[in-house]
């Protein structure tokens, strides 16, 4: 009986943490770290402020937890680049994966953008450590394909930057994109066609 109750408590705790993180994502993506408050996070999560602070030590703790999980998700497509694969297919698959993340997780993208615009105070170690290491690996793979003549000669770092910029734009500037396109457009479906054509033309040897 005790074990079952303990398992039930663990599930409840996990659910409450998820509610808090979901509420925090709403608050942070709308107002940034400085603008969001514990009270707003509590209200968005449907829990009391003391309950929020039971699970997390501070607003900073919640923010770091969200950003770490976000970065893991954001980096996953880069980890899937296969050095033994067909280079153009691998790059275009990465572009589509990044565009899908922007479409499916726009709040997370805006949260990350807020953090970067503030000078990345909560991510500086990760950006200069793990992220840089993963990018270095991807650059090595891209450079090898370029050296072998399997991709057109481009700067691998700036190729990655351009993919990030051109895909995350649709999440971070969603209101602007939809206002300019007007009704009757699917920004992501159209972007997928455009970006596939753009990078295919640029990278085909």
UniProtKB/TrEMBL annotation:
Record PROSITE patterns: HTH_TETR_2
UniProt entry keywords in alphabetical sequence: DNA-binding
Xref: InterPro entries: Homeodomain-like_sf (IPR009057), HTH-type_TetR-like_transc_reg (IPR050109), HTH_TetR (IPR001647), Tet_transcr_reg_TetR-rel_C_sf (IPR036271), Tscrpt_reg_YcdC_C (IPR013573)
Residues annotated as domain HTH tetR-type: 14-74
DNA-binding region: 37-56
A Pfam family reported for this protein in Swiss-Prot or TrEMBL: TetR_N
Family matches, as PANTHER family: HTH-TYPE TRANSCRIPTIONAL REGULATOR RUTR
Name this protein carries in UniProt: TetR family transcriptional regulator C-terminal domain-containing protein
């Amino acid at each position: 009986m005790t074990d079952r109750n303990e398992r039930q408590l663990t599930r409840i705790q996990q659910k409450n943490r998820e509610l808090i993180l979901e509420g925090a994502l709403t608050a942070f993506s709308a107002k940034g770290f400085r603008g969001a408050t514990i009270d707003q996070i509590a209200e968005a999560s449907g829990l009391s402020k003391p309950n929020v602070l039971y699970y997390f030590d501070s607003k900073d703790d919640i923010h770091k937890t969200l950003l770490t999980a976000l970065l893991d998700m954001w980096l996953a497509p880069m980890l899937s680049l296969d050095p033994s694969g067909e280079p153009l297919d691998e790059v275009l698959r990465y572009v589509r994966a990044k565009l899908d993340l922007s479409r499916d997780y726009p709040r997370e993208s805006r949260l990350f953008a807020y953090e970067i615009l503030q000078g990345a105070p909560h991510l500086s170690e990760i950006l200069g450590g793990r992220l840089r290491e993963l990018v270095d690996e991807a650059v090595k793979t891209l450079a090898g394909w370029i050296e072998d003549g399997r991709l057109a000669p481009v700067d691998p770092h700036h190729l990655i930057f351009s993919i990030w910029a051109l895909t995350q734009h649709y999440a971070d500037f969603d209101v602007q994109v939809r206002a300019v396109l007007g009704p009757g457009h699917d920004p992501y479906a159209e972007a997928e066609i455009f970006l596939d054509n753009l990078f295919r033309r640029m990278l085909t040897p």
